[in-house]
Amino acid sequence: MAQNRTLERPTKPLRPGAAMSALLATILTVVLVAACSRNEPAQSAGASADTLYSGGDILTLAGNDVEQVEALAVRDGRIVLAGTRVEAMKLVGATTTQVDLAGRTLMPGIIDAHSHLLNHADSLVQAALGPPPIGGVESVADIITALQALKARLPAEDSAVLLGQGYDQDALKERRHPTAADLDGAFPDTPVVIVHNSGHMLVANSAALKAAGISAGTADPAGGAILRKKGSREPEGLIQETAMHAFIDLVKPRRSTEKQAALIRQSIAHYAANGVTTAAEHLLLPGQPEVLEAAATQGLLAIDVVATPAYLMADALIGTGAMRFGEYRSGLKYGGIKLALDGSPQGKTAFITEPYLTPVPGCSRNCKGLPSLTQSELNRLVLLAYRNKVPVFAHANGDATIDMLIKAHEAAEDALGEQSTDRRTVVIHSQIMRPDQMSAYQRLGLLPSFFTNHVFYWGDIHLANLGPVRAHYLSPLRSALDAGIRASNHTDSIVTPLDPMFLLWTSVNRVTRSGQVLGESERVSAWQGLRALTLNAAYEYREEKDKGSLEVGKLADLVILSANPIKVEPMAIRDIKVLETIKAGKTIFKAP
To answer: Which domain holds residue 241?
Structure first.
């Protein structure tokens, strides 16, 4: 007989909505989608559904307007009906599991548009140096304490180099970056490297500087900087952008296959617990493709992973047959090449056309950040990728960098003698951009993946660094959607926590830590924000035919939420919890 499963009902009532929320709820009740072409049952004589979901709000995210259905049926890992319960009951058989959502909300699984899965795995054995509300580090002394605790708990073979992640100089009581001297007192002989929350700079102690070959005689590389002690050429410890490359071998994990597998398994579970059914690793460094491929071969990838190798490997991988782009194998797909073009807004290394308004470490005047590549090298890499049909994912935070990418895109199309608006080149972050650049995105088919969490975590800092005009246009998701651009949104985990409901909250509310609204005109509706996390992200990955919305024929990648983001008050969105995550019809996470 058919099996029944009911989700436990909430122990607390949902918060009451405002008048507008009540109106939306009424509209949702009325707009129940009956028979339309994309929601008709898949025809297969005598075939029953494996699972039937009903009894709650089911958000399709298929169209620009709010749309929900009464029931969703799944067979063999794919959706066979998204429509009325009457229609769905025709697909119930002896082995069908009927899931009563008990008032909860079902929607497509989250498509992670940009994060760093392997960084998260590594962070599990590193010192967590984030400030509140991410962590508890508020001073240089707290950093030292966290590193000492790490050294004490790690086996000797794993503590030859101590690593920390996520410090924020603006959140430290000293209001400055740590220095090598700060770290040397506690760690005179052990190399120590701590990475800034942006991932675009690090601080090394003297032992680490020596191990990386950094000294007074080391010149700054193109696109990078080694900060010096005042009045001296001696490094003070802060290393920015491409100068960090000297530390790649030093910080490279040297752990057993078993330990690496265990960390990746934990990271995959972390993504699944956050409702993510397709994850990203968007900066594979040399040696890391092999790590992910081993994980795929071992069956560790319970969710799909889209990986993009760093431009450092472009010539070895593109057009050589060394890597197959665009197809999944055991849950792993190489989605394209990652170009890292500039730095961080909060670190003041993002490359911008008008100077920063506050002091910039290592710069005395007209400080505009750093491009990581020259225009000619960027042109060459974009042309190489386009010629070989390899998608481009380009990190570009500042408007000067975005100008460079637009020029490179146009130069490549001119060289190839073709104009295409379907290359789906993704401009990751697109934070400090201008309205005229949005028009260029629309004209050229460039796709921004925004980072609205910046508004909360660093919005107050951006106001000081950039002034109100530039800060209020930060991650302009609403402007992109109004222009018909299929923009996505991301957490850039581990830069900010992997919490899609909090990310949605930042895009809908745009509230800073101090409570200011930053860029009110760039606020989006909850429906628009959800599409940026699902269907639009799937489009950027060229997977919109399989993922991102609840439509017949698509994968049953689903998430069950404690409440409906469309119905709750906007400020309550951050309180919504992921209760269950389903990948291709199978539950991979269920809240205890």
So the answer is: 126-251
